[in-house]
Amino acid sequence: MAIHEDPEQHEVAALARMVPSFAGLRVLEIGCGDGRLTQRYAARAGSVIAIDPKEASIEALRAAMPAVDARAISIDMLDLPPHSVDVAIFAWSL
């Protein structure tokens, strides 16, 4: 049985309320998985760094969205310069 995360689209509505426009923003997505949420904003963002510790998920994201800087790492391994992102998002990640 497949798990359908957020079938009512509450997550998408909340994201739209919090970040009305991703146009030109530098985004960090933590726990991106295979890009389920990433695909909703990546085309409009200025840049996207998407991280997830699962290599298989990152490979799927890379195949679907080659413009995204997708990294198979955990948050504690991420090293970014200060002020290098405008917004950090995560969903279904602990």
Uncertain ranges:
none
| Main pleated sheet | 4 strands, parallel
Approximately how much beta-strand content do the residues carry? 15-25%
The CATH class label is Alpha Beta
Percentage of residues assigned to helices: 10-25%
Across the major sheet, the strand order is 3-2-1-4
CATH topology: Rossmann fold
Order of helices and strands: HEEHEE
The SS-based structural class is alpha/beta
Number of domains: 1
- Tell how many strands the DSSP assignment holds: 4
Considering the protein shown, what is the CATH homologous superfamily? Vaccinia Virus protein VP39
Annotated CATH architecture:
3-Layer(aba) Sandwich
- Average pLDDT over all residues: 91
Treating each run of at least 4 consecutive H or I residues as one helix, how many helices? 2
Taking the alpha carbons of the first and last residues, their distance comes to 23 Å
Rg calculated over all Cα atoms:
13 Å
